[in-house]
Amino acid sequence: MVTSPFPEITRGLKTIEVFADVRCPFTHVGLRRFVDRRRELGRGDLRLRVRAWPLELVNGEPLDPDLIDEEVAELRRQVAPDLFGGFSREAFPATSLPALRLAAAAYEDGDDASEQVSLSLRWALFEEGRDIGDPAVLADIAAAAGVAIADSPRPEAVVADWQEGERRGVVGSPHFFVSGEGFFCPSLDITHDDSGKLRIRVDEAGLEDFLGRCF
After folding, report:
1. Does residue 9 fall inside a structural domain?
2. Domain containing 142: what range?
3. CB–CB of 163/8 below 8 Å?
4. Coil/strand/helix, residue 35
5. So what's the pLDDT on residue 204?
6. Is residue 1 assigned to a domain?
7. Which of 107, 139, 145, 170 could be cross-linked to 165 through a Cys-Cys bond (beta carbons 3.0 to 4.6 Å apart)?
8. Residue 138 pLDDT exceeds 60
9. Number of structural domains the chain divides into
10. 146's torsion region: left (phi>0), alpha (psi -120 to 50) or beta?
């Protein structure tokens, strides 16, 4: 049984929308920064709704696990040594779609269940090294959130989020919306140096602007 690492989730009054892929490590950082600030401020009136931005469909090809492994290593080294402690390249799922369908199903059970599932999926992948493409892992996460998994999860819910994201100008994962204003990956500045090596740093100004709008 999964124990949620986000016990402060309560029924909120304001929703921050996020379009993201569940296997995107940059999203994990952004969501954790939001959750940490919420906890510090005791702001149980705010909640997240994490919607699907399925990169394998957006890009028309599977995510490269070697690229994700490189991104995770650089995030730990350069900006987030407190995260990704249990990530396993070998457990990286081949597709995000079953996990995204679970997150969509959780939304039908309420905002709190939806947020818990979306956060717990990423926690399981990036902190516990679990394969969130495995039906048993998904069932464990669903049970911990009190979410019933339908025998045939509706794939159209994931596609509908993707289409809605396109309509609203989503450019990548994660793309946050606060009171209608968009913020793409607000916690990080991601570049490549002249040799092509990935460089990531905390975008302090962007992060504080984004969190200020949230809280």
Report:
1. no
2. 14-214
3. no
4. helix
5. 87
6. no
7. 170
8. yes
9. 1
10. left
